[in-house]
């Protein structure tokens, strides 16, 4: 039979635990798929090639779409971009 008081498990300070929980809550979910890195070099090379081909194909399709849209319009097509954030305003 055990003698004396049981040992207490080590706990994080409440302030540190609360701060970590607040940061975790404000960060939100992360974008993009999660992948497990393969251990074999050939698989890594295949994935890089596949990714590069996919990006190239997508960029080409986007470029062709813009060209077709510009060709059918009397005015030049202006692509909408996100304005850079203002440095002076916070």
Briefly, what is this?
Residues 27-36 have a biased composition (Basic residues). It is built from two helices and no strands. The protein has helices at residues 14-27, 41-71.
List keywords for this structure.
L10K protein; UPF0390; 90 residues; 2 helices; elongated; mainly alpha
Structural class: mainly alpha
Number of helices: 2
Q: Can you give the helix content as a percent range? A: 40-55%
How many whole angstroms does the radius of gyration measure? 27 Å
Q: Helix and strand string, N-terminal first? A: HH
Q: Given the C-alpha coordinates, what overall shape results? A: elongated
Biased composition (Low complexity): 15-26
Region (Disordered): 1-36
Biased composition (Basic residues): 27-36
Family: Belongs to the UPF0390 family.
Describe this structure as you would to a colleague.
The chain is mainly alpha-helical. It has a domain at 36-71. The protein has two helices and no strands. It has helices spanning 14-27, 41-71. Belongs to the UPF0390 family. Residues 15-26 have a biased composition (Low complexity).
Q: How are the SSEs ordered, and which strands pair?
A:
Layout: H1 14-27, H2 41-71
């Amino acid at each position: 039979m055990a003698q004396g008081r049981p040992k207490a498990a080590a706990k994080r300070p409440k302030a540190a635990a609360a701060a970590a929980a607040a940061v975790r809550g404000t960060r939100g979910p992360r974008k993009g798929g999660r992948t497990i890195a393969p251990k074999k070099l050939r698989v890594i090379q295949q994935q890089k090639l596949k990714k590069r081909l996919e990006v190239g194909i997508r960029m080409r399709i986007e470029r062709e779409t813009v060209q077709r849209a510009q060709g059918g319009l009397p005015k030049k097509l202006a692509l909408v971009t996100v304005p850079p954030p203002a440095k002076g305003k916070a």
